[in-house]
Design goal:
This protein is an alpha+beta fold and about 350 residues long. It is about 30% helix and about 25% strand. Bound molecules: zinc ion.
Amino acid sequence: MNVKERIFEHLEELVDRVAPPGWEDDVRGYVKDSLSDVCDRVETDVMGNVIGRIDGEEKFELMFAAHMDEVGIIVKSIDKKGFLKFAKLGGIDDRILPGSRVTLVNSEGEKIEGVIGTKPPHIMEPKERKRVQKHKDLFIDIGASDREEAEEMVSVGDVGVLRGDLKRLHGDRIVGRGLDDKVGVANMLTLAELLHENEEVKPTVYFVGTVQEEVGLKGAKTSAFKIYPDAALVLETAVAGDVPGVKESELSLGEGPALTIVDASGRGLIAHPKVRRLLIEVAEREDIPYQLEVGEGGTTDATAIHLTRGGVPSGVVGVPTRYLHSPSEVLDLNDAENAVKLVEAATNEFPDALGD
Ligand SMILES: [Zn+2]
């Protein structure tokens, strides 16, 4: 099986699993099982991070991280007609909510389907029709006719996601929910397999599936503190801007993984120059396409990791993705494959490039 097929196979498993921040259990189980097949040791920590480790020939420790959670929603109350009010877990744009399907997971682990309802435009005041409706004005309809019936299916505190199945578009482009950061997790699992098959892995390598990234980079903070690696690479998505109405200087699909120089205008991560240089050198040498990212928007787990204890040289390898945090994120599998190839080729060069 080639690298692209391996990544897609992992994605088919991952997109099926609902994992809002704090409720990563289903993805965690899959990550743990997959890493157990290829790592020398795998553990789950207090926060719920999964940490796999392949022992290398050298003392140098390299940490890879990808977050297991995705943006989601949580049930806040149930009204007497059986409609659910909800809060958001992570950054979801209110404009995409009305009419979206949701999948909720109750305490038994059963999946409950629903739809986010709103007053139909026909009976809205003209002023109301123009306004973006806040999530607080919307509700989830699970088909229940009253509170009692709804409570047989869900409880306050149950979580869910906007539904968006994984499908292939034209060529190697795919669409699905939560590709941020399921593609990073799929890349990390594929990388672990490749390094397991490699006879000579120089650094000791950690693969960390982190929790609660979307609500404050929390799992990255604690796992990096525990491991305190000599360097770290975060496997993520990156904001693609190759759509109508966006200036041409943004990242494009199919032109290679994004190597972060800075994100959040420097308030997040400023990639360590040695890590940045190493990734660019390896990409040039191996003829792997790449794009440089100067981001002005969000950030990643690398922001938490690089500020650990005395500091950890860190970088991000991202797969450019359109429509982030919507149920229909779109990316090109070739970018994911090239991300894995680049990171695999760079792994053994970390000790020399970063060691003293
Ligand atoms: Zn992400």
